[in-house]
Amino acid sequence: MDSYYCIVGTDAEPVAELCVLDARDDLTARARALEVAETVVGWARVSVHAGERVVSLIERAVAPSSLPLAA
């Protein structure tokens, strides 16, 4: 059986964190990966893997930093 792991990336570092996950299925692995991502300041994306298989790609939704201009 393959181990689950995740790769957390920021805009500045594609591999800011690499972590083996304690999970038995894809859904649990995804949840654990998001927990790991929350420990990385400025995380932008997380890829979850089971061995060579990509389980999930998660991109952080970021609101625009500026307000729209008035018409």
Walk me through the structure.
By secondary structure, this protein is an alpha+beta fold. It has one helix and four strands; from the N terminus they run E-E-H-E-E. The chain has one helix spanning 26-37, and strands at 4-10, 17-21, 43-50, 53-59. Strands 2-1-3-4 form a four-stranded antiparallel sheet, covered by helices on one side. Strand 3 (43-50) and strand 4 form a beta hairpin. It is elongated.
Provide tags for this entry.
71 residues, alpha+beta, four-stranded antiparallel sheet, 1 helix, 4 strands, 38% strand
If strands are numbered along the chain, what order do they take across the biggest sheet?
2-1-3-4
Instruction: Return the average pLDDT rounded to an integer.
Output: 90
User: What pattern of helices and strands is seen along the backbone?
Assistant: EEHEE
- Approximate helicity band: 10-25%
Low-confidence stretches: none
Sheet-strand content, in percent, reads: 35-45%
Largest sheet data: 4 strands, antiparallel
Q: Any idea what the shape is?
A: elongated
Q: What is the alpha-carbon Rg in Å?
A: 15 Å
Class of secondary structure makeup = alpha+beta
Helix segment count?
1
Number of E-state strands: 4
Distance between the termini: 58 Å
